[in-house]
Amino acid sequence: MEGIEMEGLDIFPDSITGDFCESVLRHFSKSDQEDSQRLCATVGAMAQELKEQDLPLTPIAYFGATCSSLDRLVSEPDSPPQVVQSLTTILSLLLPRIPVAVLKKKGDFVSKIVVTVLRLNSVTEVTLTSGLKCLAQLLVAGDKVIWSDLSQTYGVIIGYLTDSRSKVRRQSHLCIRDVLQSLSGAPVLSPASEAIANLFERFLLLAGGSNANSSEGSKGAQEVLYVLDALKDSLPLMSTKYMTTILKYYKTLLELRQPLVTRRVTDCLNSICTYPNVEVSAEALLDSLSFLALSVSGNETSPVSMTFNARLLSSGMMKVYSLNRQLCVIKLPIVFSALKDILGSEHEEAIFSATEAFKTLINGCIDDGLIKQGVDMIINSKSDDRKSGPTIIEKVCVIVESLLDYHYSAVWDMSFQIVSTMFDKLGYYSSYFMKGTLKNLADMQRFPDNDFPYRKQLHECVGSALGAMGPETFLGILPLKFEANDLSDVNVWLFPILKQHVVGAHLSFFSETLLGLAGEMKQRSRKLELEGNVSSSREANSLVHAVWAMLPSFCNYPLDTAMSFKELLSPICSALHEEHDIRGRICSSLQILIQQNKKIKEGKDDMDGAELSPAKQRAISHYTPEIARENLNMLTASAPQLLSLLSGIFLESTVDEGGSLQSTIGEFASIAHVNVVRTLFKKTMQRLLKVTQEAGMAEASKNNTMQVDESSPESSLSLQRARLFDLAVSLLPGLDEPALDVLFSAIKPALQDVDGLIQKKAYKVLSIILRNQKGFLSAKLEELLKLMIEVLPSFHFSAKRHRLDCLYHLITYASKEDSNLRRHEILSSFLTEIILALKEANKKTRNRAYEILVQIGHEYGDEGDSGQREHLFNMVARGLAGETPHMISAAVKGLARLAYEFSDLVSSAYKLLPSTFLLLRRKNREIIKANLGLLKVLVAKSKTEGLEGHLASLVEGLLKWQDDTKNHFKAKVKLLLEMLVRKCGIDAVKAVMPEEHMKLLTNIRKIKERKEKKQAASSVESKSHLSKATTSRLSRWNHTKIFSDDDDDDDSDVDMVSGQKSKATSKLKSKAASLRSKKTRRAEKSLPEDLLDQLEDEPLDLLDRHKTRSALQSSSNLKRKQDSDDEPEFDPDGRLIIHEGKKPKKVAALDPDSDSRSEAKSHFSVGSSRNNNQKRRKTSESGWAYTGSEYASKKASGDVKRKDKLEPYAYWPLDRKMMSRRPEHRAAARKGMSSVVKMTKKLEGKSASTALSAKFMKFKKIQKKSGKKKR
């Protein structure tokens, strides 16, 4: 019965009124099954009887009526089984609704009734499942103290564990599980578990007993499988003693190697390993897991079994480790060997499961004690006289290293992950166990790229080894080989890995060892240059720069900053002074040192939400606030020398690439003593005053003499002043309030300087001060506002962007004023200037103006008062009343940008539509372009419902303006109409379109239909990816796309506004890049057959790693030649050769294996016409036509046999178009095939290509005709 046989004690909720009858009827009345209908009738009759006796329709009343009815029926000799089934089902549904106290009181009575029902001769399957549910519920609700009170009922449920009916058997399994779960912690759990264990032992003896006949043995074996199915759910709930007893039998069952038995045993083991807080014997569980690991071999072909075994070994060993660590680590080598076999299989899912199992066991079961034991054994014993065997950790490392053998070449990407995990786990001690592994990785670097697709994974693995061992030990195993006579032998491939993965190193190693090597290489470079070997000299010099490029990595959480930075200071200062190419590297290194120690001293977390590598985690763990303080003290002590040097270099240099010098000066100024910064600032300002005076005198003399000399010292003085301003503002983090006042007093006259460079630098310095010094901004707000207005008449256009930055800081700070009037006054004073900056030709200035306008909108609207933002919008809209087209167009662009950013302003923008349409009629291209951009933003940002209300006015305004033939924006108008069609639909636009413009709408509709058909022709997969990728919108403003006046009609503007196309494309690329190819893996696993010919008589030892790797490298020279005539032809320089007309004969040197594969040179084929070429091309397009040309002979007619080729066959083109279903094609095929036999004798001795030539047949006919004429 559907619905009645559902698992669970309470399968449907009660009705609103709480009436049990109503709940049953609502749940089962819709079923067409006879049992369900009979159940509804029975419960309905019961409810009617209760109503007639004036009894309440409570679950207890139904319970009493059901029990009395069952008791009466079972006492009758011929009780109807259908009625008993319905009453038993009703009882199973009622018991969860009965209070526990009632069940305890009436439990024995009800149990006897149910047991009697189960023993009836005519009992149905549904009655049995319902009765078992009732017994389980009674046991769960009853007392759990005395076993004798439970044993009889419990024995009845156990008796059905091996029932032949699957539903009854499954229900008994579930009931046993529920009962054992309720007995957890009770004293009766042990005898309940004993009963199951005894039953299991009895069936085992019956299945394998010597006295049992074959039928009983077969029955016993089947019953053992049934009990194993029950133990899958119940074994984790049993007592430890009997769970151990059963686990001991599991090992014996695994030895049978029977798939049905093994699968059930492993399911039981998995339930134990994954069940939380289960108490189990570690020895018994480990014995089963060990045997399972030993049984995993190459003959296992089921991917499901291999995947399951890998996961079971992982979870099982973790369980054993939590119970008994010592027992677990002893068996680790066996388990690792089993996982290695699974990793070498051909099944993707099994490979991934084995990889994850390796990682889990390495991180979970290899602890510090195991590692220390191995290290002590290696240190305390010499390799020559060591008598003890390898330790556990050594065995495990050997197994991990073996994953790099050629046998696992198809899964090297997974092997690299496992080896990396091992390096990360061992940390510094990996140098004791995995030296050979690191050398093997270095050997794999020599593989050519064609045969080794895992270069990136290899470098990541080597980087893990570097992070674990540290650069000192790592470079001791894999040296850079700077001493090599040939510079090509230097391990330059290690430099990128060192740059990326060095963390937590020692500065002393860099200063003493690496810089020593760099010094020797520098001397070698000079020597090579003197010898005239310029290329080698440059190569040596690049190695020196590569060493210095590693300095930022060595400054990434170094372990000896306080002790070794002083030794590094001298070479750093020398390099800063002499080597300008590496100044950026040194500056970034110093910044890293200061910033990291400042963060740790202030207690800030350096995680930044990113997942850190184990090496970086270890490095950060060494840092404490006390260590960071000591490091900063050392850096502070070096600050005077470095500040003096850096400031001198900054003033002398003409370019500070990336601002590295300024940033480094600022970092040292933030940690240096106040007196040091004050002294340097004072010298800078004195020098600035002196240079300013000299510039003023030079300007005065220039005006007096009326000379215009480009080579005058005035330009150099301006550059000096600009550099001094930059140096002064670099010291800003260490300046106090009086020093800021001095700097501000120097800035004020510079804001009015006639030199544009000085003005630009002054505004830049002022913007930096306003951004970083809020106290200064608060104290001098009024003075700054007045100053910005006063210096406006003398303002130079080159300083526009930095002036906008100053205005932004002033306006945003003023937005926090309490008085709305004051905020309005400050904003209105500078808003016009910001709006006009939207029309700047300089892209950076224009974009900065847009950013400032948007940021002001956020400042004025994000505080909860949206009316302030609308007020800003209205203030910008006042520019539409401007007198010049420049001002009007700038205001329109500002409105478009605000409407694009803030959706709540779209409704306000619609109020400006009448003004927009009036402006469109003005014959000014600048104004028209801006207004079209505004309309484009409105259409793109509006919802369909809001856009339909303005659709008529939009279409009317656009089309009226379009009639003017003097404008250049017709394509943009058409694009706007297409956007409206896409948004509102073709019918809505057609309803408001004037009749004279219907042709335009028809053209738009046809273009849309063509695009839809083109998209429908694309693949389903691409469309699905695209639809998924375009669900999220990425908004990004693009001034050029919005306001472009190009007459293009593509969708670039729409895509820019929606921000969806690029994201979808990137989604497709990332999807394609993430797919893993099984075919590639399998193809790369086997050796090429041609390689065996190169090995002569010596067999290839596949266990020798070096021989197999050399064989793999040599396979790149043994590529098979492709014989297809469709392959493109290239000349020796790699250029594509394109032949017009007939394809010439291939050069024999390009393909020495086939010297006669070109077409036969006969006088019949040489004169082939263009029509024949077209016919042959048409045939090839319909299906590849095999002409047999490669069997043609150059010396004689007829075909010849070719080496490693099939024999020539019938002279008929194998063209798949002959398989067509069309009658005429089939008739042609039959006619052609029937003529093959007839033509055989006529064409005997001719080549296949000649026989197939249509010209040959025509030529024969012509010959016959001409012969007749001659006669």
Automatic annotation (TrEMBL):
Q: Where is this region: Disordered?
A: 1011-1031, 1048-1092, 1106-1200
Matches recorded under InterPro entries: ARM-like, ARM-type_fold, HEAT_RRP12, HEAT_RRP12_N
Domain RRP12 N-terminal HEAT, which positions?
14-280
Task: Give me the stretches of Polar residues compositional bias.
Answer: 1016-1031
Task: Identify the residues that the record assigns to the RRP12 HEAT domain, covering every copy.
Answer: 345-651
**Where is there biased composition of kind Basic residues?**
1064-1082
Question: Basic and acidic residues composition bias: which ranges?
Answer: 1132-1141
Q: Which domain of life is it from?
A: Eukaryota
Which is a Pfam family this sequence falls into? RRP12_HEAT
Indicate the family of this protein: Belongs to the RRP12 family.
Its name, as the record gives it, is: Ribosomal RNA-processing protein 12-like conserved domain-containing protein
